[in-house]
Design a protein that fits this description.
Elements: H1 3-30, E1 34-39, E2 43-44, H2 55-59, E3 63-64, E4 69-75, E5 78-86, H3 91-100, E6 104-114, E7 118-127, H4 135-149
Antiparallel strand pairs: 1-4, 2-3, 4-5, 5-7, 6-7
Helix pairs in contact: 3-4
Keywords: Coiled coil, DNA-binding, Nucleus, Transcription, Transcription regulation
GO molecular function: protein dimerization activity
Main location: nucleus
Length: about 150
């Protein structure tokens, strides 16, 4: 084998690798991440059109039916769930149990307190083979399950 043949084969191989890289980059661009956020707006008791001068005034105002803020994102077989809710003892365990009933396997979870009365829960889960909901259905069902947990 002479040097010209070896160099020619190396150039062909490099071109093949460049084509594979282009293919993988195109596939990565085509993958989409779906996201849905379910937010129940709080309603002020009394004057609904009240104006507040600061966040402290808003956060200390009386609310009717404080419900959670739930966000979910699907990517391939993974689900990222973010919940901001009222702080309650034992709630993180209950919500993880509820999530597992939707044919999801919890891979990781993080619970942080926010202020004195709020929790921020982040959960990463893997879809089981039986999981067959759209992202909107999942968030709606999770929100319904949340109401029964409270």
């Amino acid at each position: 084998m002479d040097k010209a043949t070896v160099l020619g084969d190396a150039i062909k191989y490099m071109k093949q690798l460049q084509e594979k890289v282009k293919t993988f980059e195109e596939q990565a661009r085509q993958k989409s991440i779906e996201s849905v956020v379910f937010v129940k707006k709080y309603q002020l008791l009394g004057n609904i059109n009240a104006e507040f001068s600061s966040w402290d005034e808003i956060s200390s105002a009386p609310f009717d039916e404080p419900l959670p803020e739930i966000e979910a994102r699907f990517c391939d077989q993974s689900v990222l769930i973010s919940i901001h809710c009222e702080k309650r003892k034992g709630f993180p365990e209950k919500i993880i149990s509820a999530i597992e009933k939707f044919n999801l396997t919890v891979i990781n979870s993080n619970v942080m307190t926010f202020g004195n009365c709020a929790l921020h829960i982040t959960i990463v889960a893997q879809m089981d083979m039986e999981f067959c909901m759209t992202i909107k259905e999942f968030v709606k069902n999770l929100h319904s399950a949340f109401i029964f947990l409270v």
